[in-house]
Specification:
- By secondary structure, this protein is an alpha/beta fold.
- It is 32% helix and 19% strand.
- It has ten helices and nine strands.
- The strands form two sheets. The protein has a seven-stranded mixed sheet with strand order 4-3-2-5-6-9-7, with helices on both faces.
- Helix 8 packs across helix 10.
- The longest helix has 13 residues.
- The radius of gyration is 20 Å and the shape is elongated.
């Protein structure tokens, strides 16, 4: 048993019913490639290993790497940070690819965006993350949780909050509850400059209390002819309306 490292945000899952439920949420078949992010002691790996011969374990903690090599000798183990990983170099085959993991809370958003920005490489991601973040991913307009993460995630994927997980099933016990989400990246991204779309979304929500006409005035001075109601606030727009707004701003 490993001693959890606080610096790596490690909280080891102990409930086997929850583990089975998480693994059961993955749509992968036995011929598909499956990547597990941060396997730690191998709680999820115990259930993934027998079912997926093409299993990749991506782990930054050298202690875990040693343990995993001993316990799961047929898996492909990568001693690396998920944020530094080049997916296409790591997974060059044409097989369908899936990704799963209990994500460290402190790098959840960067990992989510790395998966979403991978160009549809993955068929599905199943992640356990902080409950509050999961609720933001699926939040609807005109709610407090709706924001940058909600809009970007919903434009780039079909995301579902599957179930909540109590903090009581981890060691050490975190200060927050968790939730398991399924993310199915969309094969086709919005037909607009994605970098500028993200800039528009970020600019609008950075001043979410202001009307859009004020919030996005730093991007374009001439807002005449914009079809979106600029008296609305960012939190009132549907994700698709940000795409339309971006297209119209690019024409200025």
């Amino acid at each position: 048993m490993l001693k959890p490292k606080k610096s790596l945000g490690q909280h080891f899952l102990r409930d086997h019913n929850i583990i089975r439920k998480i693994v059961g949420s993955l749509h992968a078949g036995e011929l598909d490639e499956v990547v597990e992010v941060g396997p730690g002691e191998g709680a999820l790996t115990d259930y993934l290993y027998p079912s997926f011969p093409k299993l990749h374990l991506l782990e930054v903690d050298h202690r875990s790497v040693t343990l995993l090599k001993h316990r799961f000798s047929d898996a492909t183990i990568h001693h690396a940070s998920v944020l530094d990983t080049d997916w296409k170099s790591m997974l060059p085959s044409d097989e369908k690819k899936y990704i799963i993991g209990n994500l460290p809370y402190y790098i959840t958003s960067p990992i989510l965006f790395k998966v979403l920005d991978s160009g549809g490489l993955f068929e599905q991601a199943v992640f356990m993350i902080q409950k509050e973040v999961a609720e933001r991913l699926v939040a609807k307009p005109r709610t407090k949780a709706y924001g940058i993460l909600s809009v970007q995630t919903q434009l780039l994927s079909d995301t579902e909050l599957l179930f909540n997980v109590s903090r009581e099933v981890f060691y050490p016990k975190p200060n927050v509850d968790s939730a398991v989400i399924s993310i199915i990246p969309k094969k086709e991204q919005p037909d607009v400059d994605i970098a500028y779309l993200k800039k528009v979304i970020r600019t609008a929500f950075n001043q979410r209390r202001k009307k859009l006409s004020n919030a996005i005035s730093t991007l374009v001075t001439d807002l005449s002819g914009i079809s979106i109601d600029l008296n609305k606030r960012a939190e009132e727009l549907e994700p698709e309306e940000f795409v339309l707004l971006t297209k119209e701003l690019l024409q200025k």
